[in-house]
Specification:
The complex is a heterodimer. Chain A is α+β, with helices and mostly antiparallel strands. Chain A has a single domain, classed as Orthogonal Bundle (Cytochrome-c3 Hydrogenase, chain B). In chain A, the strands form 3 sheets. Chain A has a 3-stranded antiparallel sheet. In chain A, strands 6-7-8 form a 3-stranded antiparallel sheet. A two-stranded antiparallel ribbon of chain A has the order 4-5. In chain B, about 45% of the residues are buried. Classes of the chains: A alpha+beta, B mainly alpha.
Chain lengths: ~375, ~325
């Protein structure tokens, strides 16, 4: 008797608890072994780039919030930088410091939302809620700065919308006081947990060359041992004035990527501390920026280091009050393109771990 | 005739006892989980939310019985019961105190090891009958798991039998002037970990691994049918705690306070540890679980068995 066997086709998502949004993965399985993986994206496409062409420069700022909704500040920042470069707008130093402070706070919040759900993917439910606890505090602090908890629209051309209040600064200092201890707690509880190490070490190894050729950036690239962080390599804004390090992984597996995020939270804490210490006096916006911005014809590309990697905006102006074209270079999209390379040869149970370690946000992947 | 009546009454009593225990356990688990996770957990149904498990039960019972269209109906509908009945049957022979037992039987331990294992048919049937790929994977994982843990677990139990020279719980407890935990620390460890595998909870909840398999074998179940799976899981948990207490912690024996209180202190202590583990650890991967069971637990249980034989000769 001969028994015929076939591959097992599993459609994981778009409604699935651990696809971090609306990713659909078409998996070809041999029992638990993944033979082939094909990600299908586009379920959250809203045509943000097209919307930009029908808005004034300023009106597009809230739309950037809604792309990578976990790090809205840094999305704002990328767009604002591109337009400032295009129009040649000067930014007062205090505004840059404020941007760094809120940006780094947002980075911590976003990394918490990466590490927590990675815990959830691995089954450590408690870590997820611990991460939410800390994130809640950050959101409350950011609310004091701009009145919103997730979609901030706080940045303006030539500065920020409002100055920081003493309330914000006190809350921030309070937070920084016990946050490092919390990070140690996560490390002990989860990152260094032998079961998690077993689950994530050697899983989803991303070689340096592949990472570079697929355009990976952020913690995904740094996990593979490439020390590229725009805050250092381009040292935009006032980042050159701060003392911080770029954590770099060794083997490029899921554990390294998670660890890089954990370590980056520590570095961000350091940056915020320094920024609060040296916060200069002065205006928090450039009063010369006109209400209706009409940059001269031309084009500009500017990028910031978002929690997911190089968040770039390419803005083309035809001299009118609306951008002629806005192209977003989404780091999560590039990182997600690694999936078909990373998944084959792994177990089905590794899929959520690898996906979680890439940390995609689908608002940004699909735009 | 009278004996049958007595057994029926005892059986019904046991069932009620376990059903109540499950409700209490749900409350304890949710509260403990809440405190472990820096949450408050439920507060509003009764004093500190004590009525919440009852409210949950009412909710399960009043939900619509959805049967998806292309399931194999008979298997799908049977699975929750197949999963729930065996662990409940096991309680018939567990004594609360000397003599306080539904069915006194010399081979009680053999029965307790054999019957609850049938429960794995439940997940397998649910997985196959649901006509859902995730369910199927969950069912298959449940079977892989039982194949992995059953042998080390049995070997750990056999070492106790060797020491006590009996399969009767009362005699086993009576033989433990010093709890067997002292004589057989590895045996206890193997038994406890294998029990964690049996009760299908983190770190070994592979059959319902919600990050990969949505809800594993019970993905397609809702309402009280899902509730039955949950009750089965809790019944297994209670059973595992009772067994570990009888076999390794000298059952109801203890100084100063009444025996029954000692029994429950030990049982709840073990349950607490299980819940604590559940809400702290990440889960294993299926192949790692098998690795662990065959390459760590199995040799450990053999060593423990040899040690038990030596100890039995020496004692």
């Amino acid at each position: 008797m001969s028994v015929e066997t076939r591959e097992f086709l599993l459609n994981m998502g778009p409604q699935h608890p651990s696809t971090h949004g609306v990713l659909r993965l078409i998996l070809k399985l041999d029992d638990e072994l993944v033979l082939e993986a094909e990600p299908v994206i586009g379920y959250l496409h809203r045509g943000v780039e097209k919307i930009a062409e029908n808005r004034t420069y300023k009106q597009f700022i809230p739309h950037t919030d809604r792309m990578d909704y976990l790090s809205s500040m840094l999305n704002n920042w990328g767009y604002i930088r591109a337009v400032e470069k295009l129009a040649g707008i000067e930014v007062p130093e205090r505004a840059e410091y404020i941007r760094v402070i809120v940006g780094e706070l947002n980075r911590i919040a976003s990394h918490l939302m990466s590490i927590g759900p990675t815990g959830l993917d691995a089954g450590a439910f408690t870590l997820f809620l611990y991460a939410f606890r800390e994130r809640e505090r950050i959101l409350t602090i950011l609310e004091k700065a701009c009145g919103a908890r997730m979609t901030y629209a706080y940045f303006r051309f030539g500065g920020v919308a409002q100055d920081l209040t003493s309330d914000f600064i006190n809350a921030c200092r309070e937070f920084l006081k016990d946050f490092p201890q919390r990070v140690n707690e996560y490390e002990e509880l989860f990152i260094e947990n032998p079961i998690f190490k077993k689950r994530a070490k050697g899983v989803g190894i991303l070689p340096k060359e592949l990472a570079l050729s697929c355009g990976a950036s952020g913690p995904v690239l740094r996990g593979s041992g490439v020390s590229r962080d725009l805050r250092k390599t381009e040292s935009y804004s006032v980042y050159s004035q701060f003392d911080f390090e770029i954590p770099v992984g060794e083997s490029g597996d899921s554990w390294d990527r998670t660890w890089v995020r954990l370590e980056e939270m520590r570095q961000s804490t350091k940056i915020i501390e320094q920024a609060l210490e040296n916060l200069p006096e002065g205006p928090c916006f450039n009063p010369d920026v006109p209400r209706l911005l009409m940059p001269p014809p031309g084009e500009a590309y500017a990028a910031v280091e978002s929690p997911r990697g190089e968040q770039g905006y390419f803005v083309v102006s035809d001299g009118s009050y609306k951008p002629y074209r806005v192209k977003v270079r989404s780091p999560a999209f590039s990182n997600l393109s690694l999936l078909p390379h990373l998944l084959p040869g792994h177990q089905l149970a590794d899929v959520p771990i690898i996906l979680g370690s890439l940390d995609p946000v689908f608002g940004e992947v699909d735009r | 005739m009278n004996t049958y009546l007595a057994i029926t009454l005892w059986g019904a009593g046991t069932f009620l006892f376990i059903a109540l225990f499950v409700l209490v356990l749900e409350y304890i688990e949710m509260k403990l989980a809440g405190h472990i996770q820096h949450r408050i957990a439920f507060l509003h149904t009764g004093w500190h939310g004590v009525l919440q498990p009852i409210a949950d039960m009412i909710k399960f019972l009043s939900k619509e019985h959805l049967t998806p269209r292309k399931v194999s109906r008979f298997i799908y509908l049977c699975a929750p019961f197949v999963s729930m009945i065996p662990p409940y049957l096991a309680f018939l022979v567990l004594p609360l105190l000397p003599g306080v037992v539904a069915l006194r039987w010399d081979l009680a331990l053999l029965y307790v090891m054999a019957v609850p294992s049938l429960a794995v048919l439940g997940p397998l049937m649910a997985g196959w009958g649901s006509n859902n790929k995730y369910s199927l994977m969950g069912g298959l994982r449940a079977v892989t798991q039982i194949v992995s843990y059953e042998i080390p677990r049995l070997l750990a139990v056999v070492s106790v039998i060797v020491l006590a020279g009996s399969l009767d719980f009362e005699k086993i407890v009576k033989a433990q002037n010093i709890p067997y935990l002292i004589w057989l620390p590895f045996g206890f460890l193997v038994f406890f970990i294998a029990s964690l595998m049996e009760i299908n909870r983190i770190p070994f909840d592979l059959a319902e691994d919600e990050s990969t398999l949505i809800m594993g074998f019970h993905t397609e179940y809702a309402g009280i049918r899902w509730g039955l799976f949950m009750m089965a899981e809790y019944a297994h948990l209670i059973l595992a705690a009772f067994l570990a207490t009888y076999l390794f912690l000298s059952g109801w024996r203890g100084p100063w306070i009444p025996d029954i209180i000692w029994l429950f202190i030990k049982v709840f202590g073990l349950i607490f540890v299980m819940i604590w583990v559940r809400w702290t650890f990440p889960r294993f991967r299926p192949d790692q679980m098998m690795d662990f069971a065959w390459k760590v637990l199995f040799p450990l249980s053999i060593i423990n068995f040899i040690w038990a034989v030596i100890a039995a000769v020496v004692i």
